[in-house]
Design a protein that fits this description.
There is one protein chain. The chain is an all-alpha fold. The chain has helices at residues 6-13, 15-22, 34-52, 67-79, 86-104, 128-137. The protein has one domain (6-116). Helices cover 54% and strands 0% of the residues. Helix 3 crosses helix 4 (67-79).
């Protein structure tokens, strides 16, 4: 299941932009090339999955927020064969930053995730001998 659709891109960016970005034939047809859009969305979704696969079970059940928006922003960036506008670039860079935060667990999706493996320890522990050695090395101050 795709995280965004051609209709999402048309709604947000307009049909004219998608025609300009996808009508790449020798003779202009004046219509959106659905295959080009589908590939850009697939590439965007693969990138998203790459960032979130260690934290969430794939495929995701539905399209949780903000995954649809991220897919749309990455896909429209991918459709540009020439320099995109600064807004498209900022949106793309923001999408990548958000994906990194999802991968780190800073941003959480409303989706089934993977429970990170733990060592079973409750945190850092120092043995008394190590603490005593640190105290003596620092003149008794810790």
């Amino acid at each position: 299941m795709a995280y965004s659709t051609q209709a999402d891109l048309e709604k947000h960016y307009g049909t004219a932009l998608l025609v300009n970005l996808t009508d790449r034939g020798e003779l202009a047809s004046g219509v959106i090339d659905a295959d080009v859009v589908t590939q850009a969305i697939a590439d965007a979704d693969a990138m998203i999955d790459g960032y979130i696969k260690t934290r969430y079970t794939l495929p995701l059940d539905g399209v949780p927020d903000p995954i649809g928006v991220l897919s749309r922003r990455i896909a429209i960036y991918n459709l540009h064969v020439f320099e995109p506008s600064s807004k498209i670039v900022r949106d793309y860079e923001g999408a990548i930053a958000t994906l990194k935060d999802i991968g780190k667990g800073i941003v959480q999706l409303d989706a089934d995730g993977v429970t990170p493996e733990t060592s079973g320890g409750g945190g850092a522990q120092l043995a008394e001998g190590i603490v005593a050695g640190i105290k003596s090395d620092m003149g008794g101050f810790v």
